[in-house]
Amino acid sequence: MKRAAGFLQLSLALLLALPLAAATLKVQIRTPRGNRIVELPIEKYVAAALAGEASVFGSSEALKAMAVVARTYAIRMRGRHAAEGFDLCASTHCQHIDPDAVTPRLQQIADATAGEMLWFGGKLAFTPYSLDCGGRTEDASAVWPEESAPYLKSHDDPYCARAGSGEWHWSAGGAGIAEALLRQGLHSPVRLTEIRVVQRTPSGRAQQLELDGDAPLRIAAGAFRFAVGRELGWNTLRSDWFDAHAGNGKLLFTGRGSGHGVGLCQRGADQMGAEGRGYREILAYYFPGTSPGAAARGFDWQRLGGESIALYTTRPAQDAPVLAAAERALRADQQRTGWSAPRAIEIHVYPDAQTFRDATGEPGWIAAYAHGSRIEMQQLRDPPRDRDATLRHELLHVLVESQAAPALPLWFREGLVEYLSEPAAPRGPTWSQARIPSDAELRQTKDAARARRAYADAAAAVADLVRRYGETDVLRWVKSGIPSNASRPPVNTK
Predict the structure, then answer these.
(1) Which of 162, 203, 303, 306 meets the CB 3.0–4.6 Å disulfide criterion with 154?
(2) 410-424 pLDDT per residue, tens
(3) Contacts of 41 (CB under 8 A, 6+ apart)
(4) Helix or strand (DSSP H, E) at 35
(5) Which residues of 223-382 form beta strands (DSSP E)?
(6) Where exactly are the structural domains of the chain?
(7) Residue 432: what pLDDT?
(8) If residue 443 lies in a helix (H) or strand (E), which one and from where to where?
């Protein structure tokens, strides 16, 4: 795997970002002595989320599905409380986690799906879930108007129905409900006598309510349920799927389900697992069209074919100039080296730095990298000459690797690409003084400054070889190996 030396100048936050699989989360946890912030490795967090949100699951496959959902949700929502100094809270506002209740089974489930998340269009999917959808999931846009993901549309859920989802009932006096609404800052008739559902979502859940009394008014069903839940308990109105009527001096509610009903239904997922469905089948049922994986999936790649190169992009109109620039760079590289290009060179241009990082596991400061005849590349916002330099650099990697002898040292291959990328041979220490970087230094991606030094050292060593033996001979060594009569300095890995 070859990385570009044309390092990007990005924000500090992106420069320090770790691959998702290595992420830790700062979580605020309530204790008897007050709130404290703890830093949890992602798989420890996932196990704690399973303990807090799904500990009663009987099916291991359903638990695996929940682990993927909880991990995806946490990484997507990471930084939700950044202004307060932490990533996520430990309550249901984010996800309820209970680190003290993690069992060996729950940790094993988290570890069995380690790093796996759901993706859609190369981005992390939005993965909400609820306890019980009542036999039909809800459309995401009915709960969050700005959310219109195609994988979060309302659909029937026979698994939830087979699991025994039933009706619930609750009643309370109108005065008590009115007082609860007023304490939550919502308007309410002082003498609340009747509640009617006047508008429903496509799934049948209440969307708008009309409150009758001394001052009739309309209110969103969701706001009504949350206000009642906060004041009178969450076991009162369990979902927005209800009917209401007055009787015997009280307001009577009859409903189905528990929670908002969007995304994964926990009752249905557990039933799917009990019926022998695997966790990926469960995920596909509740989030259709998403793709599970440790790296970004689901890109809508469109192919642009050139003379020697095929370019894959999600934005063909904007990236067409990249293909033309790549063809020019390849011709220049072939002319410089005298080598023929391998067949079927591909360049994949990702739409942004975050997507590139998620899909490849590379840090954001890597502009591009080549493996075999395929180049992975960020969407560069630099001037065309910088874009062209990056393309030429990566295509040189493709050419060198297509010609390289099996035992050719990594420092030589990397240094030669660095040397050839420069418009003129860089000056550096003599061959006897050159510092040869180790393979570990060249391959590490956590420290940008250390990587720059390693590549510069490799380039300086190759440049001195060119000064001593000439470029033609050094290029010939790519196929034949560095000759024994070319005295080498000892490897310095400090």
Answers:
(1) 203
(2) 999 999 999 998 755
(3) 23, 24
(4) strand 34-41
(5) 242-247, 250-256, 264-265, 291-293, 302-305, 309-313, 345-349, 368-371, 374-377
(6) 2-7+300-480, 19-160+261-293, 167-256
(7) 53
(8) helix 439-443
